[in-house]
Specification:
The structure is a homodimer of 302-residue chains. Chain A is an alpha/beta fold. Chain A has 10 helices and 13 strands. Helices cover 36% and strands 24% of the residues of chain A. In chain A, the strands form 3 sheets. A 5-stranded mixed sheet of chain A has the order 3-2-1-4-8. The relative contact order of chain A is 0.15. Chains A and B meet through β10, α7 and α9 of A and β10, α7 and α9 of B.
């Protein structure tokens, strides 16, 4: 009997991941190709890549995009890392013959859906996922449902205000969670702090390097993680008071720095959240840090 | 043919409201009785009050409580206005013969459910309700479902942090929305500001009096509403970025001051929220300011 697979596509700024997911929700193949920014070339390269899985019968395709997506229309409203605005990606992918029907969502929202199935096997009803990378993405599962919101824009937890007098965020607001915990913003802040202190940081700075430097006792690197911890703790308290989730899951590359920020963030969370939901929540670091987006994308297909 | 009614009970600190709601979700009778703080006496007074509706066949009872409620167990964990802690209200109400099955929830959560049905007739999927009274309560409807959370504690939007350096809230945290927009906190802040300015405010101060004084140009009263507006605007931006709701509804007595705070709050919201969800949301003041809780309580009965 023919297996019916779901196709997941996670469109990142440099790489596209494709996953073939079986009817039990397990990955049965993963591919990576270079991202073409021309959407027609991209669609062709995807159709070409799919030939790696011949004679597969598809139930449909789920697409996760790093940006603001209209899931109903299959339109990418704005994807800064891909250079797209108001792009009818659904139409382009249909014309290229990608398996239909097609479903679209934001990548962090898709990652939350992937985590819900892959890490918790649907055993919980209330999950918040924070994707800690260059920026801070978010996704919500509430009462067992993935939350899209009125225009598919829900889950922008990285742009929750933490301090109205804080540094300006790329979104224009002051003191978003992302200006403290986003990889780019952390590196920017640390470089400025070193410059003010008349020190030159060693080589290329990444969040990973900030981890090493903090472990070696560098005061600027330590302060960078402490600021991130305080901001995260405050944001976690908000999430606990508003959603009362069973689990808050941290994923993405910067989540690797959890030993440097999570203990303090949890302390701040407990000091600021209500007692009952504060005791009930588990804050965890994901075991699957890289494939939740593409898995969740595939699972957008019903 | 016998009609099957739902019974709604809204337990406030001074008054209890009872509503008889028909199968179409319309109120077919409303009663108010004095709140007995002894839960056994309260249950008896409710059973007595129900005799006003003889020969009614009941589908069940929904109970809204001003406090932290465990909906699954029917236990009131903490209700400061009623002086209750860890009270097995479900058991007491069952023993008093109130119509079963019994459903419990927080009053602001019930109000959100009441608003969803009464004001929007289920025509929207994503609703946030802020109940502006002595404190600031909240309730969420997401993807068409009332959000209870893992322990029934979801929706405490009044205890979202707005400013980490703000005044201390009754919950222990600094700078919650409630310290700027809650009726009690507004009155407290205004009295202190008048005292600092060496002025004695006229008579009893309530949020209603603060409205009148602001309209008459009193600088402290005007500042009280301006602070509330800024805090609300910031909280609205968070709600928009996280939930992407279709409607945010303001209800409760302090919502009457909306002309004094809403225009500025909306401006702050638009400056700080993402563009797509910020344009999509409608922020409204409820037409039914007092009965949403008891209606929502009745509608907790499936």
């Amino acid at each position: 009997m023919a297996q019916h697979f779901r196709l997941g596509i996670d469109l990142g700024g440099t790489l596209v991941k494709l996953a073939r997911v079986d009817s039990q929700g397990h990955a049965r193949g993963l591919l990576k190709i270079k991202t073409e920014r021309d959407p027609v070339l991209l669609a062709k390269s995807l159709a070409q890549a799919l030939k790696a899985w011949p004679r597969v019968s598809w139930r449909g395709t789920g697409v996760a995009v790093a940006g603001d997506v209209d899931p109903k229309q299959g339109v990418v409203r704005f994807a800064p890392n891909l250079g797209w605005r108001q792009l009818p990606l659904g139409k382009i992918f249909r014309q290229a013959g990608l398996p239909q029907p097609l479903f679209f969502d934001n990548d962090a929202t898709a990652a939350a859906w992937g985590a819900y199935h892959a890490e918790f096997h649907d055993h919980i009803n209330h999950l918040v996922v924070l994707t800690l990378g260059t920026g801070v993405g978010g996704g919500l599962v509430v009462e067992g449902r993935l939350v899209h919101g009125a225009t598919g824009s829900a889950g922008e937890i990285g742009h929750m205000g933490v301090d109205p007098r804080g540094p300006r965020c790329s979104c224009g607001r002051r003191g978003c969670l992302e200006v403290y915990l986003g990889g780019s913003a952390m590196v920017r802040w640390a470089k400025r702090a070193w410059a003010r202190a008349g020190k030159v940081p060693p080589g290329d700075i990444t969040p990973r390097v900030l981890e090493d430097l903090a472990l070696q006792g560098d005061p600027v690197a330590k302060k960078t993680w402490a600021r991130a911890a305080d901001a995260l703790g405050s944001a976690l308290a908000n999430l606990v008071n508003i959603f009362n989730p069973e689990v808050i899951l941290l994923t993405g590359g910067v989540a690797g720095g959890a030993p440097l920020f999570l203990p303090r963030a949890l302390q701040v969370m407990r000091e600021n959240a209500f007692e009952t939901p504060g005791r009930a929540v588990k804050v965890k670091v994901s075991r699957h840090r890289s494939d939740l987006g593409v898995m969740g994308a595939a699972l957008l297909v019903p």
